[in-house]
Amino acid sequence: MVGLLILKQLENLSDERVVLAWKQNPYYQAFCGIKNFHNQLPCHATELVHFRKRIGAKGVEKIFVMSVKLHDKKAEESIVNVDTTVQEKAITYPTDGKLAIKIINRLNKLAKAITLRSGVHLSKKLNHYALIYVSFVMSKACKSG
Predict the structure, then answer these.
(1) Long-range CB contacts (< 8 A, 24+ apart) of 24-31?
(2) C-alpha to C-alpha distances, 103 to 1, 21, 49, 126, 135, nearest whole angstrom
(3) Is residue 88 part of a domain?
(4) Does residue 28 contact residue 7 with C-beta atoms inside 8 Å?
(5) Residues 19 and 66 in one domain
(6) Which residue, 37, 72, 107, sits at the end of a domain?
(7) Which residues contact 23 (CB under 8 A, 6 or more apart)?
(8) Of 15-24, 65-74, 97-106, which one has max mean pLDDT?
(9) Do 67 and 118 fall within a single domain?
(10) Largest Cα–Cα separation, the chain
């Protein structure tokens, strides 16, 4: 229960969330002193409420103070190493469909600019040819993949 309270405070989770996170996260279980992975809930979320009521606000504060004292100097690190190899990147790769849409949007801008100068509406013709192009690209993609 003490480990769950510390995790709840550190991660800013609700009682329900910390109990579910404990079930799914082996690191949380190791933090609480469990040697083997368990896929059951450690307790019902309401038991954390009862535990906090039993020890009171002073007891909860005492737990946090003791935790900080145990790891006082070890918790303060001058250098933090971050492994970014597993972080997702927001990279999109160009595909035929994306390039076609980009071309169509640029041509629409050009058609609007020309329409303003000449008075001739090119956007309708452009949209017609754009649809033909997109259907061609898509049929080509379907045949190859």
Answers:
(1) 28/3, 31/3, 31/6, 31/7
(2) 59, 46, 59, 11, 14
(3) no
(4) yes
(5) yes
(6) 72
(7) 38, 39, 40, 41, 42
(8) 15-24
(9) no
(10) 82
The number of domains in the chain is 2
pTM for this entry: 0.46
12 lies in some domain: yes
Task: Return the number of other C-beta atoms located less than 10 Å from residue 18's C-beta.
Answer: 24
Q: What is the residue range of 34's domain?
A: 2-72
Residue 43 in any domain: the answer is yes
Domain assignment of residue 26, yes or no: yes
Q: Which of 11, 21, 20, 6 is nearest to 51 (CA)?
A: 6
- Give the span between the Cα atoms of 107 and 130, in whole angstroms: 9
Mean pLDDT value across residues 105-130: 71
Cα separation, 27 vs 36, in Å, equals 11
Rounded-to-integer distance, Cα 129 and Cα 100, Å: 12
Phi, psi of 81 (to 5 degrees): -95, 130
- Residue where the block lists tokens 């040697």: 35
What is the reported pLDDT for 145? 56
